[in-house]
Design brief:
Pfam families: SNF (PF00209)
Strand content: under 5%
Membrane topology: Multi-pass membrane protein
CATH architecture: Orthogonal Bundle
Helix content: over 70%
Distance between the termini: 64 Å
Structural class: mainly alpha
Shape: globular
Radius of gyration: 21 Å
Family: Belongs to the sodium:neurotransmitter symporter (SNF) (TC 2.A.22) family.
CATH class: Mainly Alpha
Bound molecules: 4-fluoro-L-phenylalanine
Number of helices: 18
Protein name: Transporter
InterPro entries: Na/ntran_symport (IPR000175), SNS_sf (IPR037272), YocR/YhdH-like (IPR047218)
Largest sheet: none
Length: 450
């Protein structure tokens, strides 16, 4: 017998799970290093604008599609546009989620490696050069990198196979607030180091002359990546939501939390980068190299580092769960008897797809496709091409295929008034979002340069 579709058990549960999907490597690991390589403050400002005027309306659109249809990422599009191929948006989202999770699990593995190193005491008392060297040699070791990636995928599979709701809901409610607190402690230390001004200036002072078209595309990709928008993951999560929930409010809370965590990550990292003489453009290793150096300068630093890494790992898991959940939900179509098998098979396939990424900093470092290692290529493809393309399709689909009355009905549930806000959202999703995404793409391919 087909079991009934699961639902989130509480309002807060949904909010925490959706915030858990959003907050992860994007805000904590990727954001500081992309700011670092894309020129600092100007990038941050553009990222903020994209997040508020493009990311937020997109998140709301995904919520409306999910809750409005109460279906998985593929069936949702079929529900609103039967007999058409708009369901390709969901299919693309699922394929893209596989690619993203494959390299995401590699970075998840790095956190596990660091956790082991921190617990064993090997991360304390090193100097600047030694921290970089340690990170590079750890992730270059093929056995360590692949084993850690495997452990990360294994835990993701075990939890998703159980059905995320109860476990994730409960754990998220404790871990998310704890993560905020851990960040505050870290920032206090970082801001009391010598030479803080330069780091703050780099991070927050917008110097537009350093902003390239590529950096603008990265800012767009980063805002989608950090909000989990574009792959229909949020369609899937909101499909488990009751009709009473106030969607605009949930979306706004998630966006604010996400911006706040990105800001905290930047404030924690950049003052330390400059005080210790690291390079802001160090790339994907930035956080891993700078963090232990900051913690090392605190009393009980290694204890705090372990706590921080645990929370960071948890934030990464809650995003990974959502990436696997969208795939499992679309294949099982709500039939929970198939969940376990489907989760194991897809999870293992994703692990295998991720192996070349895990080896990208070691044995495969010279293996390049389009001039990029498998790790860089997957990241680039997901962040800067697949997410914006997915978002563009969803922005076109929503006003075109969902009747305005239905959009309004989903928008206004749980609130009083809201007509003006709805008109603003509709304007953004119908015109501003698609036009802005297209302009950013055209700019990158050089259409506006003479
Ligand atoms: N938002 C997640 C993070 O910032 O780590 C990553 C992510 C999850 C992106 C789910 C896209 C997605 F669909």
């Amino acid at each position: 017998m087909k079991q009934q579709r699961e639902q989130w058990s509480s309002k807060l549960g949904f909010l925490m799970a959706a915030a858990g999907s959003a907050i992860g490597l994007g805000a904590i690991w990727k954001f500081p290093y992309v700011v670092g390589t894309s020129g600092g403050g100007a990038f941050f400002l553009i990222f903020l604008l994209f997040t508020l005027f493009i990311g937020l309306p997109m998140l709301l659109a995904e919520f409306i599609i999910g809750r409005g249809s109460q279906k998985d990422a593929i069936t949702a599009y079929r529900t609103f546009a039967p007999g058409t191929r708009w369901d390709l948006i969901g299919i693309m989202g699922i394929i893209s989620s596989c690619i993203l999770l494959a390299f995401y699990s590699v970075v998840g593995g790095w956190i596990i490696i660091y956790l082991v190193e921190a617990i064993s005491g090997r991360l304390s008392g090193l100097d600047k050069g030694e921290y970089s060297h340690l990170f590079n040699s750890l992730i270059a070791n093929p056995t360590v990198a692949v084993a850690a990636q495997f452990v990360f995928m294994l835990i993701t599979i075990l939890i998703v196979a159980k059905g995320v709701q109860k476990g994730i809901e409960r754990a998220s409610q404790i871990m998310m607030p704890a993560l905020f607190i851990a960040f505050i402690i870290l920032i206090i230390r970082s801001l009391t180091l010598s030479d803080v001004g330069e780091g703050i200036k780099f991070f927050l002072y917008p110097n537009f002359s350093s902003l390239s078209s590529k950096a603008i595309l990265y800012a767009l990709g980063q805002s989608f990546f950090a909000l989990s928008v574009g792959f229909s993951v949020m369609v899937t999560y909101s499909s488990y939501l009751s009709k009473k929930e106030n969607l605009p409010k949930s979306a706004t809370i998630i966006v604010i939390m996400n911006i706040f965590i990105s800001l905290l990550a930047g404030l924690a990292i950049f003052p330390a980068v400059f005080s210790f003489g690291f390079k802001p453009a160090a790339g994907p290793g930035l956080l891993f190299v700078v963090l232990p150096a900051v913690f090392d300068k605190m009393p009980f630093g290694m204890v705090f580092l372990v706590i921080f890494l645990l929370l960071f790992l948890f934030a990464t898991f809650t995003s990974a769960f959502s990436l696997l959940e969208i795939i499992v939900a679309a294949i099982t179509k709500g039939d929970n008897t198939k969940r376990k098998k489907v989760t194991w098979i897809t999870g293992m396939i994703i692990f295998i797809i991720g192996i070349p990424s895990a080896l990208s900093y070691g044995v495969l470092s010279d293996f390049k496709i389009f001039g990029k290692t498998p790790f860089d290529l997957s990241d680039y493809l997901c962040s800067n091409i697949l997410l914006p393309l997915g978002a563009l399709s969803i922005a076109i689909f929503t006003p075109l295929k969902i009747p305005r009355k239905k959009l309004w009905e989903e928008f206004k549930a749980g609130m009083t008034g809201g007509r003006r806000l709805f008109a603003l959202w509709f304007l953004l999703i119908r015109y501003i979002v698609p036009i802005a995404i297209i302009i950013v793409f055209l700019d990158v391919i050089g259409v506006f340069k003479w």
